[in-house]
Description:
The complex is a heterodimer of chains A (595) and B (162). In chain A, 40% of the residues lie in helices and 14% in strands. By secondary structure, chain A is an alpha+beta fold. In chain A, the strands form 4 sheets. In chain A, strands 2-1-6-3-4-5 form a 6-stranded mixed β-sheet, with helices on both faces. Chain B has 2 domains: 1-52 and 115-140, 2-Layer Sandwich (Alpha-Beta Plaits); 55-112, Alpha-Beta Plaits, CATH 3.30.70.20. The interface between A and B is medium-sized, with 38 and 27 residues.
Amino acid sequence: MAYAGNILRVNLSTGQAASEELDGKKAYDYIGGRGLAAKILYDEIDPKTDPLGADNKILFATGPLTGTPVPAASRYMVVTKSPLTGAIACSNSGGFFPAELKYAGYDIVLVEGKAAEPVYIWIKNGEVEIRPAKDIWGKTTHEAEDIIIAETDPDAKVCSIGPAGETMVRIACVINDKHRSAGRSGVGAVMGSKNLKAIAVRGTVGLKPADSEAFRAECLRLVKHASNHPAVLALRANGTTNGVNIANKFGVFPTRNYKSGVFEKYQEIGPEKLHRTVFVRARACAGCPVACKRVTRLDTDKYQGAGEGPEYETLYSFGGMTGVDDIYAVTKANYICNELGMDTISAGATIACAMEMFEEGHISEEQVGRSLNFGDPEAMVEMLEKMGRREGFGDLMAEGSFRMAEEFGVSHLSISVKGQELAGWGTRGFKGMGLNYATGNRGACHTKGNTMGMELFGKMDALATEGKPQLIAGAQDATAALDSTGLCLFINGVIKPKDVISLLKTGTGNEYDEESYARAGSRIWNIERMFNIGAGFTADDDTLPRRLLEEPMPEGPGQGQVVELDAMLPEYYQQRGWDAKGKPTKEKLKELGIS
Amino acid sequence: MSKILWMHPDKCTGCKLCEVACSFKKYDEINPSKSRISTVIYESPPFYVAMACPQCDDPWCANACPSAALEKNPEDGIVRVNEDRCVGCKMCVLACPFGAIEYAPEEKIAVKCDYCEGQPECVEFCPTAALEFKDADEGGAGQKKRSLADTLRKAYMEGGSL
């Protein structure tokens, strides 16, 4: 089966590890990865639990297609209760760690409890060890990975946290394969709270698809289709960095803490500049024809290093948001985030928020320990290091922009939803994205309902609100299903739902039609929503920062625009079969089989 | 002239799909640890290259084999393991300077790349054409000469000696 067929449960309080057979019915209903992990989290924890307490659980969940020859099926999802938002987190990453987990015989690793001292988990097929990590605690993700590989197996794959996760920085991420990041919602802090430094895995058990011959034929057909697809070739050529040009053209490149949507210096951090300066070559995740990763190198008087990135969202957060037009400083910030283990989006946006607070006089030079103006690359890099290590004012920044701004009574300057910072698609010129941010189950998020194709390049008017509730609900559900298969979002549109259905059938034996596959996506979205309702979220939390609702866009193609959220939200709830307070109705839950 | 597997490190993106495809074809399971081709990844500076048996004309493995289980077919140029004759002594593994033949503990025999009998699965699946299956003299050497000449030309131009 393309599923490995097992869930590995590791209890760090008792030191027990046990393999459990995958529940076939649950796997069918929730597909795997994001969906199945959400269902397990929903069933097993009290949604009101302290996200940084021993009762929270964290799942490292692959999908049924992860690790197979299906193009771009390299992903896993880190699912837990987020310490940043208090809502359900699902942070996605590729690389080679997720596939290796499958080859070791597991679809999901579920970690519960809390270790008395720092540990890492070493998985070699059926053998699982909880090993001391006292000597590795405090190391960067890169150092930790090198040490753990030397201690285990040269072919082991590792996911780990850096100093940020260890000190429970609320925007800490989980890094795997050194440069891949399950970035958002502070999932790294949950590992830190459990004294879990890393998971290392080596797998030689392998997978046996349900119908090998048919599955192979489908894989080969799709590899050939994807390899020369224009969307794939464009991403291979420039990664996601083209977004800088696109977003500026449409006036949706968030600039200086979302004050504007046009960055006058965007070319200094755009694709041409990046590829002319720091870019070395393109690299792929496991079995991926896209190869969007940018392998880069820094060798200037001020900044040195090597790594991967920046990608679009990082160019937004450390470029546009902070007003920094220095590609070298942005690249350095990217490296710092990967090494200390922090989400580049939230980190950059938090610095941008602090910059505005500084310029508006809410925080002083004395409090920050230095000046912190928009456009200052040195201030950005210095404060980023401090945030990742909780030093000085960085200790407060490590709480994320919302808690930091709230401390000074200016929470409206935090550009966040449910406490999570917005991604790099400005919403005043792109209304559907505004609704998507407002209703995101993990707080503001661009990946779990991205309608760029339809709104910016498609038939719909980006500035209109009509039709957006349907569009967003549909995109959110479709993404929930795709995410749960182990496929990467970047192959969406190249591989269509009918292809996924055929792959699931030949790979796992599970039969879906377009309707039942779409319903699985809807089921996943709704169970995430139910978790959040249990955690105490209400319709009041489905909102946007005041800036986007009340301050008209000052310039560019979206000039004069705000997001008319009230014109979209009631219809969105209706579209979803939820009541006026945004709660799924009994009938809806029954229809989806959620209990 | 027999066909060989051409590796193009400039086109390789390090995705390792060749390994996945190889294991799937040879063992009917998705298990790159059993692959007969390996992509070697160098992090910094980044360099990715797939490595498999070069099918030597005078194969070390065959020369070392005491049971005549390894033989090069002069027609297609492929060095094959005769599974009935292989006694699992692993001399071939010791003899091969490329690490291109391995001992498979489950089957208790030596295993190696056999170009999938003329249609290598790794080439079929490679998404960037970093692997090609073609005659050894089919332009490849010429391309390499050209590429070296380009490097030299660049060095001369930059050095300002032209």
